[in-house]
Structure to design on (103 residues):
């Protein structure tokens, strides 16, 4: 599969090792961290590599996301234009938004 084709991936998604790691992340943090930043409570279904490197399976690099948030982040990581919404104060969640860069 395309996701497993990345040569940097050290654990194939269909292995017991990845499934165990994934279950551990979701057990420790069952809510989507991106939704929480917007003040929403949404169960996490996916585990995302924060830095985009599928070979870095350190716990600090793994975050729980709902599927829509994971899809948006993955698209943004690949350079596609995405919309991420705002937090409770009306600030854009996209770290690349000019308001978040002091521009």
């Amino acid at each position: 599969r395309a996701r497993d084709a990345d040569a940097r991936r050290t654990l194939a998604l269909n292995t017991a090792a990845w499934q165990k790691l994934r279950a551990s992340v979701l057990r420790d943090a069952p809510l989507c961290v991106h939704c929480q930043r917007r003040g929403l409570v949404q169960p996490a279904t996916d585990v995302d590599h924060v830095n985009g490197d599928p070979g870095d399976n350190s716990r600090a690099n793994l975050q729980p996301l709902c599927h829509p948030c994971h899809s948006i982040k993955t698209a943004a990581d690949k350079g596609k234009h995405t919309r991420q919404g705002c937090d409770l104060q009306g600030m854009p969640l996209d770290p690349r938004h000019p308001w978040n860069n002091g521009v």
